[in-house]
Design goal:
about 70% helix
Length: about 260
């Protein structure tokens, strides 16, 4: 139990995690920053500003670099533990199986929280702005709002909540990929960068806007068919593949000490 508490602190309360949270929040806010001066006029709605931070704004950068944000907190920790000989102490206190299971899920949690922090902070800020200066909740239909309507969802706050949950799921997936990459490359920097490279490569190889093989499909709800299950299935497959690679690759890393 003490080991689990210590690992939680390392994953969720480290300086790198704080940087990832700040970066995610700053990049999301940057997506609607140009509209802030229009908030008091009532011409910009909460939902419009939120979707500009998510996937619609000209200055939206979170959609580009979120794989790095997902991997920053903990994806390289397995390799770092081996380099620092920390695993020698950990394996005395717990089994290798328990260590890897805890590592995998805490890494996913850290990545999910880091990516979801941006839209969550954005939703809070815009909700406060609505209360203080009377911003309208929704004025005009955006492409993303119409996609939600196709799914039978009309409540703006439910739309924003789903985006937060979707980005948590997306962060979990990419941080899992990063952990798998770490045991293949055995390099801390590549553990963070390779998921971004994979994200870019799939976008080049599968440029079709609705292709499920373009990994932006996992982030952007406008892509693909208007259903939840394809994202869920593809995400689960990627998480399982990452877990298998991490399990097998981790054994080779352990044996190479």
């Amino acid at each position: 139990m003490e080991y689990l508490v210590q690992e939680c602190k390392r994953a969720l309360f480290s300086p790198v995690m704080k940087i990832a949270l700040l970066l995610s929040s700053a990049l999301f806010i940057a997506g609607f920053f140009e509209y802030i001066r229009w908030f008091p006029t009532g011409q910009i709605s909460v939902l419009y500003a939120f979707f500009n931070g998510y996937n619609s704004g000209l200055t939206n950068f979170l959609i580009v670099v979120f794989p790095i944000i997902a991997c920053l907190p903990f994806a390289a920790s397995f390799i770092q533990d081996h380099r620092n000989r920390l695993t020698d102490l950990i394996y005395i206190r717990t089994s290798t199986y328990q260590y890897k299971v805890v590592k995998f899920f805490l890494n996913g949690m850290a990545g999910g929280i880091a990516v979801a922090a941006g839209p969550f902070v954005g939703m809070v800020i815009l909700s406060i702005a609505k209360l203080i200066i009377g911003m309208p909740l929704n004025l005009s239909e955006t492409e993303t709002a119409l996609r939600f309507n196709e799914m039978g969802i009309d409540n703006p706050y439910l739309m924003m909540t789903i985006v937060v949950l979707l980005l948590f799921y997306c962060g979990f997936i990419f941080s899992s990929i990063g952990l798998a990459c770490s045991v293949i490359a055995r390099n801390s920097y590549l553990a963070v960068l390779l998921p971004l490279v994979l994200y870019i490569v799939t976008g080049i190889m599968f440029p079709d806007y609705h292709s499920p093989f373009n990994l932006q499909f996992l982030y952007d709800i406008n892509r693909g068919v208007p259903y939840y299950w394809p994202r869920m299935v593809i995400g689960i497959i990627l998480i399982l593949l990452s877990a298998i690679v991490f399990s097998i690759g981790g054994k080779y890393v352990d044996q190479s000490k």
